[in-house]
Amino acid sequence: MNISELTQTSQWKKFMAKLYGWGAAVVILGALFKINHWPLATLMLIVGMGTEVVIFFFSAFEPIHEDVDWTLVYPELAGISEEDDFKHASSGKIKETSSGGSFGKLDEMLQNAEITPELFEKLGKGLKNLNQTTQNLINVSDAAKATNQFVDNLQTASESVSSMAESYSNASQKLTGSVDALIGSYNNSAELIKDSGKNIAEQFVSTSQGFIENYKATEEKIQANITAIASGNQTYNEKLELINKNLSALNSVYELQLKNTNEQVKNSQLLTGDMEQIINNLKSSADETTIYKNELAKLNKNLSALNNVYGNMLSAMNIS
User: Fold this and answer.
1) What is the average pLDDT value for the chain, to the nearest integer?
2) Does residue 92 fall inside a structural domain?
3) Longest distance between any two alpha carbons in the chain, whole Å
4) Which of 11, 106, 153, 255 could bond 129 through an S-S bridge, CB–CB 3.0 to 4.6 Å?
5) Is the pTM above the cut of 0.90?
6) Are residues 207 and 122 in the same domain?
7) Does any domain span residue 289?
8) Is residue 194 part of a domain?
């Protein structure tokens, strides 16, 4: 089975109907998420657009609609175009083609019903005889004769009328059957068009209602945001004024602090100079302390030597 045969099956038509319905629901749901900025709005929008792509892809395989040639069923429609119908409808005239076809079909029905010109001629003669008989009834002297002729003519006319009535009944039955078939066809077409229009109208109404509800909700959110922004702007202005006051006070404090810092820097510079002098003095004192230490070491050595000398002298004196 190829694709063209598959698209003609009832399963394919049912599948496409469900695909259109469910796919449209997913697309609208994705748009609803995106409009209301709900969580996962981007993901839902991608899913909706992807579903729409799938719908368009499958719709490309649907068979092209073919116009039905109604002239095969109703030959009197042959040669009639939409422009000709419009022109003749606006001018109040009937197309000769359609009229000719209708009279031709009526002639065919009368021929099938065996209503011949002879039958109409007999009927005319009977009615003429009836008229003459009625006029002859005025003459009282010819009453009997007129009565006999009237009865004969009336019987002939009755037979002609009965034959014509039977033929007309047969033609009416055939014409009624054709009209009933045509009306049934038109009723079926009207029902199909009505159901399709109703489904489309219901889908359009539901979609429009959803869009209106979303628009109203969006409008309410915008109004709420505008009100919040207005109140926020007032609060922001008040806080901005307070911040300006605090900044002014902070600038004053900063200027005072900067002035004190400058004085501290100057004092630090003076202190640094004094510290450098003290360090230099300490360095010179350290050098002198080293010299003093060396001299003390020498003095200690000298004192030790002197003590030895004095000790030896005392020892020598004690011995003598």
Assistant:
1) 74
2) no
3) 239
4) 153
5) no
6) yes
7) yes
8) yes
Residue 243: pLDDT band (50, 70, 90) is confident
Q: Which single residue is written with the structure tokens 């209301």?
A: 36
One DSSP character per residue, 176-197 reads HHHHHHHHHHHHHHHHHHHHHH
For the chain, the domain total comes to 3
Identify whether 229 is part of a domain. no
Contact criterion met (CB below 8 Å) for 104 and 75:
no
Domain boundaries, position 198: 113-211
- Name residue 54's amino acid: V
Kindly give, in sequence order, each residue whose CB lies less than 8 Å from that of residue 35, ignoring residues fewer than 6 positions away: 214, 218
| Same domain? 257 vs 182 | no
The residue type at 269: Q
Is residue 219 scored above 90 in pLDDT?
no
3-state SS, 28-61, equals HHHHHHHHHCCCCHHHHHHHHHHHHHHHHHHHCC
Q: Does residue 260 share a domain with residue 199?
A: no
Query: How far from chain centre, in Å, is Cα 117?
Result: 69
* Confidence at residue 80, expressed as pLDDT on a 0 to 100 scale: 63
Distance from the Cα of residue 11 to its chain's centroid: 27
Please state, in angstroms and rounded to a whole number, the distance separating the CA atoms of residues 289 and 211. 100
What one-character-per-residue DSSP string does the chain give?
Answer: --HHHHHTSHHHHHHHHHHHHHHHHHHHHHHHHHHHT-TTHHHHHHHHHHHHHHHHHHHTTSPPP----GGGT-GGGTT--HHHHHHHHHHT---HHHHHHHHHHHHHHHHHTT--HHHHHHHHHHHHHHHHHHHHTT-STTHHHHHHHHHHHHHHHHHHHHHHHHHHHHHHHHHHHHHHHHHHHHHHHHHHHHHHHHHHHHHHHHHHHHHHHHHHHHHHHHHHHHHHHHHHHHHHHHHHHHHHHHHHHHHHHHHHHHHHHHHHHHHHHHHHHHHHHHHHHHHHHHHHHHHHHHHHHHHHHHHHHHHHHHHHHHHHHHH-
- Give 97: exposed, middle or buried? Use CB within 10 Å, 0-12, 13-18, 19+: middle
